[in-house]
Design brief:
With 290 residues, this protein is an alpha/beta fold. Helices cover 40% and strands 11% of the residues. The chain contains eleven helices and eight strands.
Amino acid sequence: MQTYAYGFPRLGENREYKKLIEGYWEGKPSEDELRRGLDELEKSRLAAYEEQVDKFPVGEMTFYDNMLDTALLVGLYECKDLNGYYDLCRGKNALELTKWFSTNYHYLIPEFTSPPQFSAVWNKPKEELEKHGKGLPYLIGPFTFLKLSKGIPPEKFGEYFLSLGEVYAELLGDFDEIHIDEPAFVMDISREEINLIKEVYGRVASRGGDIYLFTYYDSVDFLEELYELPVKAIGLDFINGKENFEKIRGYGFPDDKILIAGIVNGRNVWRAEIKRAVETLRELSRYAET
């Protein structure tokens, strides 16, 4: 049994993240100082991960928002410099903000105003791995990215998803293993979308390394079909996703995959109930490798 952690706050002990960015907007610090400051915050986060757990992602750090970063790396927007980046975050050209699922975090909503020409124009995961030298490269998954965007005609969703999948396949070709967040898998998903997910991940996995796929915030309604995806590991929420437990009790977990069990509530200010977490792991170990 190993441990995996992700989503560690990037704010810093003294809210350095917020101070650096807002200070840059006001003219101090400089861009170089901002970049160095964010790098130091990321090094601190990664050091905490490395000390405490076996596996963790690298690349969660962002100049503002990871949904915006995803939009940039697949070519939805073009930014020539950091000021262009922040132009999409604030002011008259800012993208709309909305809550990230049921949390108080607000993300920038990518908007499609015309048919996209997706391309891998920024390999942020590779840059972050080369810079820090440890961790699994981090990406928001293609389904979640599109599902949380706006301006996509319903009849075009499948076409966009398949096209975006090709970009992800290209990106994943650089890595032996990668962390992909797909929290939108816990939403109400149609049969057509499930079929598309299976097709896209089949293509993506055929071009890259081992995929560590994460869902959270709720249960996955299509869990049996999620098992069929060609991924190395599946992260499931056992804090908010009570039905995940019942489904695993009902029809088990595949022997060829690793279950990453979400048993620590990252949104709770109190310490985890260790005894309950251990009991959950003991129960899950009857059905899966964790």
